[in-house]
């Protein structure tokens, strides 16, 4: 069964940094492009970063470009999100997913809460 366990969130001041981790299981991790999504209160979930299966290509939504870095460790079946220069608008619950899966078909983990204070 596909599972994701996100961790690393917390409360940080504006301008601070956090590193999120997502441990995946139940599928052959190295074959899949992976992504990080976030959902802020009252807003729809948005995909903020993706990384290709070979780790060579990353993409970011405009609002986080230059501040967030996605990476992966296939030996540990883990995808990371390094978040620097955090802003209050980055406050959300962060989730990881396989890019190929629709939101409806994704086995969502519990997410990890990121709160950025001004």
Task: Kindly summarize this structure in a few lines.
This protein has 118 residues and is an all-beta fold.
List keywords for this structure.
118 residues; mainly beta; 4-stranded antiparallel beta sheet; 48% strand; globular
Give the overall average pLDDT.
Answer: 97
Order of helices and strands: EEEEEEEEEE
Overall helicity: under 10%
Structural class: mainly beta
Write down how many β-strands occur, each being a DSSP E stretch of 2 or more residues: 10
Gyration radius over CA? 13 Å
Distance between the termini: 40 Å
Give the percentage of residues in beta strands.
over 45%
Strand order of the largest sheet: 2-10-9-4-5-6
* Main β-sheet description: 6 strands, mixed
How many helices?
Answer: 0
Shape, per Cα inertia axes:
globular
**Model regions low in confidence, pLDDT < 50 over at least 5 residues:** none
Describe the overall structure.
The protein is an all-beta fold and 118 residues long. The chain is 0% helix and 48% strand. The chain contains no helices and ten strands. It has strands spanning 3-7, 10-13, 18-25, 34-39, 46-51, 58-60, 68-73, 78-83, 92-98, 112-117. The strands form two sheets. Strands 2-10-9-4-5-6 form a six-stranded mixed sheet, with no helix packed on it. Strands 1-3-8-7 form a four-stranded antiparallel sheet, with no helix packed on it. A hairpin with a 4-residue loop joins strand 7 and strand 8. The N and C termini lie far apart (40 Å). The relative contact order is 0.32.
